[in-house]
Amino acid sequence: MVDLIALRFRLRLHPACKPIETGRHATLDSLLGWLLVLMLVSPLVAHGASGSITKEKEGAGSASETSGLRVKVEIEGVEGVLLDNVHGHLSLFRERRNPRLTIHWLKRLHSKAEREIRQALEPFGFYHARVSGELLQKPDGSWLARYRVTPGPRVEVVSADLRLLGEGSQEPRLLHALKQFPLQPGDFLDHGDWERGKADLLELAHDLGYLKARMVVSRILVDPVTNQARLRLQLDTGSRYRFGELQLKQEILDPDFVKRYLADLVPGEPYSQPRLASVQAGLVESGYFSLVDVNPRLDQVKGDQVPVEVVLQPAARQSFSIGLGYDTDIGFNLNGRWLHRRINRRGHKADANLRLSIRESYLRGNYWIPIQDPRTTKLGFTFALEADNTDTGERRTIDLEAGYYLLWRDWITRLFLQLKHERFLSGSEGRRNTTLFSLGGRAERVAFEEAAFPRHGWSLAADLRASPGLLSSTAYLRGWSQGRLLLPLGEKGRFYLRGELGFALVEDFDRYPNSLRFFAGGDNSVRGWAWKELGPKDEQGEVIGGKEVITFTVEYDHRVAEKWVAAGFLDGGNAFDNRLDKLYYGAGFGARWLSPVGAVKLDLAWPFNKHEGDTRVQDVRVHFGFEVTL
Question: For the chain, which end, N or C, has fewer CB atoms within 10 Å of the first or last residue's CB respectively?
Answer without folding.
Answer: N
